[in-house]
Write a structure and sequence with these properties.
With 75 residues, the protein is an all-alpha fold. The chain is built from 3 helices and no strands. It has a domain at 47-75. The protein has helices at 11-23, 35-54, 57-71.
């Protein structure tokens, strides 16, 4: 189940978006992505899995520790 696309908050832009959808000039979906964007998205999705497979458990633990300390760092 996908989320509906975000609508503009400005009333004029929202009205134009609604008219464009109603007249068929635009769909409710985002614009189709370019081949470069599709390739980058595919690489990004597989990149984390490939990186985790190469790292040792100690390296993964260290990365997780740094991330956790950054999240809980007091300002």
């Amino acid at each position: 189940m996908s989320k509906p696309p975000k609508r503009p908050r400005d009333p004029n832009q929202l009205a134009k978006a609604i008219v464009d959808i109603a007249t068929g000039e635009a769909t409710g979906d985002n614009a189709p992505e370019s081949p470069e964007t599709a390739r980058a998205r595919k690489a990004g999705k597989s990149g984390g899995t490939a990186r985790a497979a190469v790292l040792t458990p100690e390296q993964r633990s260290k990365i997780a520790h740094v991330a956790a300390s950054a999240r809980w760092k007091k300002s």
